[in-house]
Design goal:
The structure holds two protein chains of two kinds.
Chain A: H1 3-28, H2 35-38, H3 41-75, H4 81-109
Chain B: H1 15-21, H2 29-64, H3 68-77, H4 80-107, H5 131-156
Helix pairs in contact in B: 2-3, 2-4, 4-5
Chain lengths: 114, 160
């Protein structure tokens, strides 16, 4: 994929994260009855069940944005093509594993995984 | 007479390191915002992975039918040190987000000064628009939102 397209996705996921991240922040504070209440197990179960799909979308956007961001920071050190390919593949694998790990949490709360 | 051996080609280019994003001299405000964007991005990124692990404990608690798995972890993390760390994450996330919006805006060519023939004192015309006030505003708003995070983490969360 062209680097300009990757950066476009980086910007779009960034904008998306700001919107969903603000909702996540609100649910942890004033919309969730305060930080203390938001972390009670019953509240966590309710929040994940009600907003599971939104969390999955946030997870997908964050995984791309974070791991592509790490890749940008590391490839800007300009250590050659082999280095850049190694960084890209290592971070793609790490990002994939993180995404699957987070998806498992969402699927458990949505009742897909028992 | 043999030919002199050509130097072995190397991929090492340390300019990317020493002249790149960790260069700390000849900086203006925007250059500091650039470094801050990198540092906060890496910090929040590392926290994101830890947060995935943290929340997976809630799923495990649900699977086992044992809320103590989650509540035990939350009780362990309910201390001033952990909440200070979360406050730093909140500050980093807000700074990174708002500066990201500034970058999106400037990438479109909005709110930057018009290109003009350079005249003394040779200030870049791109910095003569609303970019710098926007940069200062985002730092101030970030600290205001972090003050709210402080209230939630320490007053509501720890009962200070």
């Amino acid at each position: 994929m062209k680097e300009s397209k990757v950066m476009l996705i980086q910007y779009l996921t960034g904008a998306f994260i700001i919107v969903l991240g603000a909702v996540h922040f609100a649910l942890l504070t004033f919309a969730g009855g305060g930080y203390d209440n938001a972390l009670k197990f019953s509240t966590v179960v309710f929040t994940y069940t009600a907003y599971g799909l939104a969390f999955e979308l946030l997870l997908a956007a964050l995984t791309f944005h974070v791991f592509n961001g790490f890749r940008k920071v590391l490839t800007e050190l300009h250590q050659g093509r082999t280095y850049e390919r190694a960084v890209t593949w290592a971070l793609a694998l790490a990002g994939g594993a993180t995404f699957l790990w987070g998806t498992r949490t969402v699927l458990v709360f949505l009742g897909v995984i028992g | 007479m043999g030919l002199a051996r050509a130097p072995k080609p190397t991929n090492r280019n340390m300019a990317g390191v020493y002249q790149g994003w960790i260069r700390f001299w000849n900086r203006n405000f925007e250059r500091w915002l650039y470094t801050m964007h990198r540092v906060t991005g890496v910090g929040v990124g590392i926290y994101f992975v830890l947060h995935i692990w943290e929340t997976s404990n809630a799923a495990t608690a649900l699977q086992l039918g044992d809320p103590a798995v989650w509540e035990g972890l939350m009780a362990f993390l309910r201390n001033p040190g952990a909440h200070a760390g979360l406050l730093l994450v909140a500050l980093a996330a807000v700074l990174h987000s708002l500066n990201g919006v500034r970058l999106l805006v400037s990438e479109q060519g909005w709110l930057i000064g018009k290109v003009k023939r350079p005249t003394y004192p040779l200030l870049p015309s791109s910095l003569k628009g609303a970019q710098r006030p926007l940069g200062v505003a985002l730092v101030l708003v970030s600290f205001l939102l972090t003050a709210y995070a402080f209230y939630q983490l320490f007053v509501v969360g720890l009962g200070w």
